[in-house]
Amino acid sequence: MVATMNISRREFAKLCGLTLVGKSLSTDLNWAFPQNTELRHASGKRVIILGAGLAGLAAGWDLYSAGHDVTILGAQLRPGGRVHTIRAGLSDDLYAEAGAGRIPSHHVITLEWVRHFGLELEPFRPQGLAEIALLKGKRVKIPADKPVDMSLVPLNLTPEERSIGLKDLGEHYYGKAAKQVGDRIPEDWSPTIARFDGMSMQEFLRQEGASEDAIHYISLGFENDSAADYIMDLVNLSSPLSKIKGGSDQLPKAFAAKLREVSITVARSSTSSEAKTMCASGAVTLGCWTT
Ligand SMILES: Cc1cc2nc3c(=O)[nH]c(=O)nc-3n(C[C@H](O)[C@H](O)[C@H](O)COP(=O)(O)OP(=O)(O)OC[C@H]3O[C@@H](n4cnc5c(N)ncnc54)[C@H](O)[C@@H]3O)c2cc1C
Fold this sequence. Notes:
Blueprint: H1 9-20, E1 46-50, H2 54-65, E2 69-74, E3 85-86, E4 96-97, E5 103-104, H3 108-116, E6 121-123, E7 131-135, E8 138-142, H4 159-164, H5 166-181, H6 191-197, H7 201-207, H8 212-219, H9 227-237, E9 241-244, H10 250-261, E10 265-268, H11 273-280
Parallel strand pairs: 1-2, 2-10
Antiparallel strand pairs: 3-4, 5-9, 6-9, 7-8
Helix pairs in contact: 1-2, 2-10, 5-9, 7-8, 7-9
Flavin-adenine dinucleotide is lined by residues 20, 50-56, 73-76, 81-83, 99-102, 269, 272.
């Protein structure tokens, strides 16, 4: 049990998340990039942030800019959390993304940070190439410029689904809902969206009349996710996608370097006990919670 508790764990998580998740914020970014750090005021708190993922790093910068003394404790040896580029063991400057790679065009805050740090973007994948789907153990080509040959598709689809074709199947079932849900969580959580959130993707597709194989194909194994969340993701992934040229890890690395510049501590703690001690001793006054 920790003595100081100024905000709840949920509030703290929300605070961190708000700085990262572009989809839940307005596109007015002025607040996120304070140009004049002299605006920092004297009534700052001592803040501890657990986790040096992008949320922790961005929250660290924002809280520093707002005048607080920030310490970020990470459980890993590198900043970035689930933004993880593997380079070790690969030759010729090759790398592999083990975490986030795609940046949809509406992730305005991420994109703005990418621009802010002078990182280059490129299309997420080469244009105009076919995709390969593994359907019931069979490789099926999905050409970029023409419909899929449905005679090669080993799914148990209804005659109507076969005539619609693999490429348009998703649009057929969730196209209308996608227009209602949109590409981000709206501030006014309407009853329509609440309804979609109250059912799984599987329940939604079943309600729309999809066959079991169509449900499996469209849901990509995420049948039990909230229909609202999954449909929102599908909308996002249909927008132009970029990636950071040279590897996603350049973004957290740039953040960590920026934080070091202004003497924000980004330290490693293998457990949260160090943080608890700091909270209990009163060394930090914001972001402490009971566990
Ligand atoms: C395989 C994969 C692919 C993805 N692809 C995409 C994509 O293409 N596009 C996209 O936008 N998103 C993608 N994501 C999601 C994206 O990576 C995450 O939403 C985002 O990185 C989350 O950032 P975060 O800072 O909130 O959390 P995290 O990155 O998880 O950071 C949390 C950090 O806190 C640390 N931590 C936890 N507990 C403690 C503790 N007690 N003390 C100290 N530190 C602690 C963790 O070690 C971690 O470093 C993907 C995720 C994965 C796993």
